[in-house]
Amino acid sequence: MKLKNILFLFFFAISSIAIAQKKPNILMIIVDDFGYHDVSYNGSQIHQTPAIDKLAETGIVFENGYSSYPRCTPSRYAMFTGTYPVNESKGFLGGIPKKQNFIEQFNNAGYNTSYVGKWHIGENESSPQGFGFKQSYAAGKAGGVGSRFYPFNEKNGKKAKAIILDAEQDGKEGDYLSDLLTDATIDIIKNNEKEQPFFTVLAYYAVHTPIEAKKKDEERNKKEIAAFDYGDTPEYIKEGEGRRKMRQDDAAYAGMVENVDENIGRIMQQLDAMGIADNTIVVLTSDHGGLSNDGSKGERHLATTNLPFKAGKGWLYEGGIRVPFIVNWNGVITPRVEKESIVLGMDIIPTLLDLSLNKKMTAIDAKSFKNVIEGTETWKDRTVFWHSSKARPYSTGDIKTSAVRAGDYKLVHFYEANKIELYNLIEDEGELRDLSKTNPKKTAALFKTLTDWKKAYLIPEKVKIYPPKNTKQKK
């Protein structure tokens, strides 16, 4: 072999090792109950979110970014399995084959995987570490906290049934949970082996109820809200089995949003200080829309409005499923607002696998939108589905619903009420003009598409995703 060929192969091998050692770090941030318009980059005039805005300005913002379900657990199940959550209960993450387990793919590629914060998808085999994360902090089956302030697991002097582990042991009087979760995430990043890439998920319990902010954050927002002119916008309107909130005028909730933003800013500063910001992919999203609706059980503390979108958490209108959706990789991804492509929360981790490891996952419903990020594809005409079988008319006012979006159009089917609505979301993002009667051809076509999907998906082996009865759970 000629000397120059030997030298070429040598330097190629060295370059390949260098590239392998530069696998990007990944930070995935999930903010609980975070509405599309809870951030100032999406139009909020009350919530000031400069750190999130900076992520948006220097990354890709997906205007048509959706959660896979309008409630916490199914949405999160979809994120970590890449499948439509047709089973609204927890499912059984422990039953996912290793070759289909996203976290195992990162582990096998040498990543340090960790999970901080709200999990709410199960325990034992279905806990973060049971599922494959090498470490977890303040996670578990609990869907919320008793209080945002230490000791976190108490409400009105009573201990919560499902408690948040770790945080209470590490916390002290006066500590605020979102700060503690951020501290834990920063510690994981700082203590990570220098040559080892990390994949860290930070899932805040905020901005879910209880709506409690630090005093200084609440007082600042009280002044801003008092000075804001809401014009003739009513505070509430009747919707479904209850009310919909029409204003962002809750000082405590605004304080919670801004505290999350402040903490995200702290993490970004840490990445900069360590010199790894340019080799870190940061994703920010929510599990569903903001809490804007109550139900027949009585008036509850409503946190926000998703205007101009209709409704909120629990609903399959845009307010319940359209969410903040940012992917940021400084210096690699060209910043822009992606106005056309339709993406879902369940697409995120398959996309991260594709971006970081060039690995395509198969036999799932999700799709990698790497090509959309790179600008070689546009998913304007994608067809996506939702099915909410366990409505909460008493809590959030919604009833049993299925929906399909195909391109510009969205059909909503309240199947027990035998009611169909059709909207052109490009012309009517607020879903105010039902076209089902004036465009019967499109209505019939989309209804058939939705019905065919439900026939294929709503079958026992997909709906009942539980551990076998003879399987003993780990203690």
Short description, anyone?
By secondary structure, the protein is α/β, with parallel strands linked by helices.
Description:
The structure is a single chain. This protein has helices at residues 3-21, 50-57, 72-81, 102-108, 128-131, 167-170, 177-191, 215-226, 251-273, 318-321, 348-357, 370-374, 440-457, 460-463; strands at residues 25-31, 60-62, 65-66, 112-117, 135-137, 154-155, 158-159, 198-204, 236-239, 242-245, 280-286, 325-328, 336-338, 343-344, 383-388, 401-406, 409-414, 419-424. It has a single domain (24-381), classed as 3-Layer(aba) Sandwich (Alkaline Phosphatase, subunit A), CATH 3.40.720.10. It is built from 14 helices and 18 strands. It is globular and about 60 Å long. Strand 17 and strand 18 (419-424) form a beta hairpin. By secondary structure, it is α/β, with parallel strands linked by helices. The chain has an 8-stranded mixed β-sheet with strand order 5-4-8-1-11-12-2-13, sandwiched between helices. Strands 15-16-17-18 form a 4-stranded antiparallel β-sheet, covered by helices on one side. Helix 8 (215-226) crosses helix 9 (251-273).
